Amino acid sequence: MKRQLSIIVVVLMVLMLGVIAIGLSFGEPPDHPMDRYFIENSQLESGANNVVAAVLFDYRGLDTLGEAVVLFTAALGTMLMFRIREEE
Fold this sequence. Notes:
This protein is mainly α. The chain has one domain (2-81). Helices cover 75% and strands 0% of the residues. It contains 4 helices and no strands.
């Protein structure tokens, strides 16, 4: 009984993921005015030759720093949770 339930759950999850993947639109994303702005002005405003690096570190620098802090905190919490304690 437990094996049949597991098989049913796996089949339903595969079907659900398949429906989601089919429903997603792939191809060229819609054009947004900010895209053109970043492409044209990122080197002048930030000095970076790479547009992705300019957006990541100059335009969204504080957001990136916040994400790094969250990631560091999660890693530290995981390490503290699973550390091996020596018997005293």
